[in-house]
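queue> holo job accepted (iron/sulfur cluster)
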Amino acid sequence: MTEAIRTTCAYCGVGCGISATPTGPRSVTIKGDEQHPANGGRLCSKGTHLGETVGLTGRLLHPMIGNRRASWDKSLDLVAKKFRDTVDRFGPDSVAFYVSGQLLTEDYYVANKLMKGFIGTANIDTNSRLCMSSAVAGHNRAFGEDIVPASYDDLDEADLIVLVGSNTAWCHPIVYQRIQAARAERGTKLVVIDPRRTETCEGADLHLAVKPGTDVALMNGLLAWCDQEGVTDPAFIADHLNAPEGFWEHIRTGHDLWTTAKTCDIAPALLEQFYKLFAATARTVTLFSQGINQSIRGTDQVNTIINVHLATGRIGKPGAAPFSITGQPNAMGGREVGGLASTLAAHMDFAPENVERVGRFWAAPTMATKPGLKAVDLFRAINEGRIKALWVMATNPAVSLPDANRVREALEAVPFLVVSDIIADTDTSVHADVRLPAAGWGEKDGTVTNSDRTISRQRPFMALPGEAKPDWWIIKEVGRRMGWRNAFAYDRPADIWREHARLTAYQNDGARLLNLRAQATIGNDAYEAMEPFRWGGDKPFADGRFSTPDGKARLVLTKQMDLQEPLQQWPMTLNTGRYRDQWHTMTRTGLSAKLARHREEPLVEIHAEDAQELGIADGDLAQVSTAQGNSIFRVGLSDGQRRGEIFTPIHWTDQISTGGRTGLLPRPLVDPHSGQPGFKLTPARIEKVATEWKGFLILRGEQPARVPCLWATKVTVPGGALYEVAGNGDPARLEACLPKGDRVEAVDVSRGTRRVAIIKDGKLAGVLFVTRTGLLPSRDWLIGQLEAEEVGASVLAARGPSSQPDKGPTICVCFDIGLNQIVAAIRDQSLVDVPAIGKAIGAGTNCGSCRPALANILAQIPQETLHAAE
Ligand code: SF4
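queue> job finished
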């Protein structure tokens, strides 16, 4: 048996350790790494099913120039020449890199060095801009350095955890499980502040469903309350903080409980409950995420949270800290090397002495001397003709940036576009002049930093497929071909790591907490064997000294932004976010049939009363329109939505949907300090879409690039793919999507129903079911037939002789247990809590990601009905 390799999860910023045991060239058994401090052996559903995503489906395996395969030499020469020529002709600011929190720290370092020290511009930005740049800006304003002053251990030590703008149960499940463990073991209180009632709120002590965009008022009100109740720490304020003129007058004016409750649109009694709890609990962690960061006032929102912690002295102490939790696996590593357009390198900004210092360290010929273009501005600059060559690494801006249709125009318009990625065809790479095959998770070698500053190794356990190469290698080869052979003479990731560590320590007299001096001279073996470690110590700022010139932290005066009343044309507010079992644009999680079961379509969630007023029913299709464009979603009624607000997921792309993308809807408006887009608050409209027919396609093997109808969405199923489809006109054109083979067909003219199955060599190759007025059968049995040895014409009945009752939507993906099965078990066996459900049917006993959903289901079944069943 092959030895297990200790590595790190590919997905979120929790940064869980993984033990990967290869079982073949492209197969692996995944387990949680029990020794890793971030997860202690636990994994969520995404991490648990990583083994299903390491196949080669859709991989880019060779360099491509246009649509022709090319050699690495030719491709790299072309990229180097085009960038060199563009810089010579139009200057360094005419080129740009758009990179990703998926890159390892070593990849990031080489890209940042090439751009900022050698090409001579800071036009390198990252998709982390969309995720946590407001936290970076907030930390810099308050602490003088981008430090997360917390660790996961604080969650174990807190008496109160406040989650603000974070659906932790879905987006950072292992952190959520740690919070739940603290609640069970030591009675830690949990408050959730979120306009939506998500699964994170299940069982919380308090949920404040505030009006979106009112976090500044809420937190300033909290500080006013603490001030009034004598909960602030005068000695800490006097010795360790600077406040701008008028700060306290501002806090003491107009932030009373009643005014704040009105602004936030919540009951004063609820707000008072929260304020009293916060005031009474010294050990408080306030954990925040995209709901705070992804706002046009994101940085102010971050600083209002930090203000409260600073003024109450709740920082640098056990169980007391503001805690920004990041979305991506290495957003933090990118911040450390300086891979944002707004920072230079190693936590240094563009102050002349820093430019001079870094230039000396790199022996750089052409240092960038000012910040570069941040993501949204970068793509705007392309549309304005100011950027002539762009290199996109490991990200999909055609889907993920706001106003994504304009981004597509930019990708089409830029004179030279390079995309390095693991996937051959993404919504971005279809526009590329050159595509370079990059290493994927399981092949990469380097380090990542998670949300609590723990640096871990990502280690390879599979060979690079085809001609794929690590990102650091691709970038350094371009640097060498541009003429800087010595500066980019790296043979291995350890060379880059040591140089990065040396730079963090270079002339660092303590002004920067980021100092990896001890790593600067480690050998290759020590790098290989590196154990996870947290830089900056367990309790940064424990001595009350911050990274500002005078050592004092800064309180920042913030004002609640004016929120416009909804316009007649755009009466709703659109919020966007993630699903529990999908990651970004689904290029990897989309390969897992198990993960697809949790949500098989993108839903627009809407309050039932809003839907009723608009004549929309659960399960209808509805078009969501904004000033930027429109998309169609399946309607899901949700009493977790506030009235007037709707929610759509970010994951579906043009590769896996027709007309069902979210990315094109949000406005390209950004926070003035961080440049982070405000994804959470877009004026929108929603209306029912009436189609003449609806249906589904199930296909084995090769799948069409695009389904020709008004609306279609695709997910992976065992042995193939399932498409939900709807449209107008003759649905017969969908038959072009079916493979060749023996055809069986059933038509019911009265219902306008057509069922077609294609059978090849006795096996089911594809089905198309459409109906104009009738109902469609459950897809589950038909999907099961894709892997059956023999099928016949009876497949059109869509159920077999021993078909089980419909399981309903999958809740527990690990054991494939559906809603109907869980409800039946609860009723039949009078189950009263989540452990009892686990004991009875297994749900929730593996990764645990579905436990909040199980609690939610339990809460919706009246206890009396259980007793009646006893
Ligand atoms: Fe991966 Fe889940 Fe851990 Fe995030 S919480 S790092 S997705 S296993």
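queue> The chain has a mean pLDDT of 93.
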